[in-house]
Amino acid sequence: MGSVSAPEEMALGFGGLVGDLTEVYESGRTRDLEWRLSQLRGLVRLLEEKEEDIFDVLREDLGKHRGESFRDEVGVLKKSVVDKLQNLKNWAAPEKATQAHTPLVAFPATALVVPEPLGVVLIFSCWNLPLGLALEPLSGALAAGNAVVVKPSELAPSTSAFLAANLPKYLDAKAVKVVEGGAEVGEKLMEHRWDKVLFTGSSRVGSLIMTKAAKHLTPVALELGSKCPCIVDWLDSNRDSQSTLKRFFTKPEYMARILNEKHFKRLSDLLADKRVAASVVHGGHFNPKTLSVEPTLLLNPPLDSDIMTEEIFGPLLPIITVKKIEDSIRFLKSKPKPLAIYAFTRNEKLKSRIIEETSSGSVTFNDAIVQYGLDSIPFGGVGHSGFGQYHGKYSFDMFSHKKAVLKRSFLIEFMFRYPPWDDSKIGMLRRVYRFDYISLFFALIGLRR
Amino acid sequence: MAEETVRELRASFAAGRTRPAEWRAAQLKALVRMIEEKEADITAALHDDLAKPQMESYLHEISLAKSSCKFALNGLKNWMKPEKVPAAITTFPSSAQIVPEPLGVVLIISAWNYPFLLSIDPVIGAIAAGNAVVLKPSEIAPATSSLFAKLLPEYVDNTCIKVVEGGVSETTALLEQRWDKIFYTGSGTVGRIVLAAAAKYLTPVALELGGKCPVIVDSNVDLHVAVKRIAVGKWGCNNGQACISPDYIITTKSFAPELVKITISIMTNEFLAQSQKLNFQYLIHEINLWQLDSLKRVLERFYGKDPLESADLSRIVNSKHFQRLTELIEEKKVAEKIVYGGQTDEKRLKIAPTILMDVPQDTALMTGEIFGPILPIVTVISSRLPNAQLTNPYLPFGGVGDSGMGCYHGKFSFDCFSHKKGVLIRGFGGEATARYPPYTPEKQKILRGLINGSFFALILALLGFPREKR
User: Fold this and answer.
1) Which pLDDT belongs to residue A412?
2) Alpha-carbon gap: A76 to the closest alpha carbon of chain B (Å)
């Protein structure tokens, strides 16, 4: 079956799981284009038929409203998988590399770049977008022709159980497996060699994963956290932020709750610092019973406080003021590279400066988050926020190897390639590498040295 | 010392020195000049380190390095340009682009077998992409290493491009620093060490490692041509010490003996020595020989009857590797399978081209990467088979699995050292209230439509449906 009993497999160290998947992969089953298309169609059916169940589990795990779940997880995923279905044939086709630059010694030749699957890959997903962060990379890995293991986050247990129960029903259970469990399971899985591992989560765990991967030369992609800054150049005085917040979140059910007590405590501790508490200008109410935290605005909390050094990952929004808006660029450059930089401005010069002078996974002007749903730009970090990109065709590429293939015919041999070496042969080669064929011709018939 | 180096480079990078296209082009032009002006010094260093024949130095290192530099110079402006991509209907109106940016300060650790090319090539990519660079050449090719240390500061901006020489301890010190990318060429063993060190800082890594590159020889091929190409690939490229050298051959049992005969002949044929005078006659010769060649013949033609005396044969890099290689063929099960060659000269560190037939699979020779002038032929009963690879800047060069991760050459080098930043630009029009809470059923319907790409839904959304009280 698709879902593995964690205690049994764990006792065996997952060797059986990896062995089985390797066998399936080597049989060639997952490389077939029809198979890949059928898996993607299976994902679409899963998202359509089980939509209500998905809304239920996301509400159980995170208190997400179905509107948010559709907008950010189900809807985006479906669009993305349909996009892959439409484009897969093109992506998987060998691409001709330009002929113009093949030097004569290798003429005639056909040069191709052939995408091929990596083999058996492992995807660790995170609890905050528990469906999206598992299924988007899964769709890329399947499109690329791999066999896959998904390890959902144990901190979103309903979604994890949902995936374990349903992926085997809608996909090829022999080639796609779900392994549930916590950190020990993750560690045991990493004892093995994988053809690629994608990890979404914290830097601390990312570093552990990469260290384990090093032993087997397993290539890794890391989607890590960061403090994503938002530069605001102006505010429309007709709509102030407080009324907007009130309008959005009048009914508490429109806001997801905090994941669990550990994170609730982490967030309330951020306000334990008296200086930080004093900077609160709106909200600040914490309800430990319902694990809900009011949308909270802070004005200029101290830069050395935890709230300004660690990733917040919660509904607290500090506002830092600068003298002129351009100072924000220097501020950003002194911080680790984030996953996204947002800037609200009409100033074209500022936009250019932000693009050129700062570094981040991505930049979005005059909006936030929406770049996540775009299939045409790569999604991923840089520096502290990680490496490796996906979404759209990038998901396909992430789990592919672009194999270079050079085909030569047996016609036409140039003897100056071969020993014994002498100066005249070197002379001919020099001409060849300069693409100077007239001179070469004369040299060949003995009229030039 | 390593710490200071990195600090200085970070300051240069932060100051923006490496970003302008003019700076990058100036560095690349300087490298081209360096290769042209110092060709003799480079060839001499390669001969010191590897007894590399001048022809091989030119063919496989110098000319390739120069053309790689020129290719980058030509492509630079285009590669640096942001790429416009389609934005989605859900963010209408908006524009999206992918902007390449440098990673920052990168470390390039190169190998000893092509010590010039494998250092310069990634450095070219790193500079083209706008990074500051530390190059750590291999200490096993010391003449080339000190040549870099001497020459690079004379030609390029050494506040941004530095050479650090040294062995294990210097490399370890470098790996303890934080880099924005590490590019390593070499063995799997050290590759693991590099990857583990990078894991501490979550540094992305590219590894160009070895592997046993097989050559499948089918029987319905033009044998003489195939054999020459295999022979020059194996013994004409650093005498088998290249990551892409053919490691061993697989062919059918019935075909193998002829393959060997011709190979030996090519290696010792004396015709050629006589016909050097007129190139045209030389060419005609080629046409005649086409009917007779195979591995042995090819080898005799390339290197004469006594290959250890041939100036066209490179030596083994050092005594450690010489020891390793001789041990591979001294093993009894292996030695009895030698069909050609096997001569060694410990003083000059030379090993003659050696062909073996059907060495048992459980020997050291057949399991590890050979990296030397020893060519085992594995015969199979029947076959059905395909092809192999070289340097075209439009093809990505890199391994997969145990042969590494990441690729380079041409624009792929630029990409290797770049971050492709997604940029989404929206205007303030086109507010789709359907996005925002409260998530009423009407909004959900419109959002569904928008996400499914429905034009009608877009119109509705743009017209501000559903209407909301302010």
Assistant:
1) 61
2) 7
The C-alpha atoms of residue A281 and residue A427 are separated, in whole angstroms, by: 78
- Nearest chain A residue to B235 by CA: give it: A419
Chain A residues near residue B425 by CB distance under 8 angstroms: 351, 364-366
Structure tokens at A437: 């064929």
CATH architecture of B1-209+405-422: 3-Layer(aba) Sandwich (3.40)
Q: Which two tokens stand for residue B454?
A: 């429905």
Nearest residue in chain B measured CA to CA from A236: B428
Q: What's the gap between Cα B402 and its chain centre?
A: 14
Q: Specify whether domain B214-271+286-387 bears CATH 3.90.940.20.
A: no
d(CA B357, CA B295): 13
Does the annotation mark B101 as catalytic?
Answer: no
- CB spacing of B394 vs A98 below 8 angstroms: yes
How many helices, marked H, and strands, marked E, lie in chain B? 20, 16
pTM of the model: 0.81
Which of A213-222, A406-415, B121-130 bottoms out in mean pLDDT, i.e. has the lowest?
A406-415
Q: Do B448 and A70 count as a contact with CB atoms less than 8 A apart? A: yes
Considering only alpha carbons, which residue of chain B is nearest residue A65? Answer: B439
**Catalytic entry in B208, B213, B300, B407:** B208
pLDDT digits (tens, 9 = 90+) for B439-459: 778 777 777 777 666 677 767
Phi, psi of B307 (to 5 degrees): -60, -30
Q: Chains A and B: how many Cβ contacts under 8 Å?
A: 266
In the structure encoding, which two tokens stand for residue A268, read together?
């309330």
Interface test with A, best of B423, B445, B469 (most A CBs within 10 A): B423
d(CA B251, CA B255): 7
Phi then psi dihedrals of residue B191, to 5 deg: -55, -40
State the nearest Cα–Cα gap between A23 and chain B, in angstroms: 16
- Residue B289 pLDDT greater than 50, yes or no: no
**Does the distance separating the beta carbons of A446 and B279 come in below 8 Å?**
yes
Query: B402 contacts in A (CB within 8 Å)?
Result: 217
Indicate the burial class of B324 (C-beta count within 10 angstroms; 0-12, 13-18, 19 or more). Answer: middle
Which pLDDT band holds residue B44 (cuts at 50, 70, 90)? very high
Verify whether residue B243 is a known catalytic residue: yes
- B66 to A23, A416, B138, B415: CA distances (angstroms): 45, 19, 20, 19
Domain boundaries, chain B: 1-209+405-422, 214-271+286-387, 435-469
Write the ipTM. 0.79
How distant is the Cα of A272 from the closest Cα of chain B, in angstroms? 30
Query: Which of chain B's residues have a Cβ under 8 Å away from the Cβ of A79?
Result: 451-453
Helix (H) or strand (E) holding B286: helix B279-289
Domains and CATH numbers, chain A: 6-225+391-403 (3.40.605.10), 230-380 (3.40.309.10), 415-445 (no CATH)
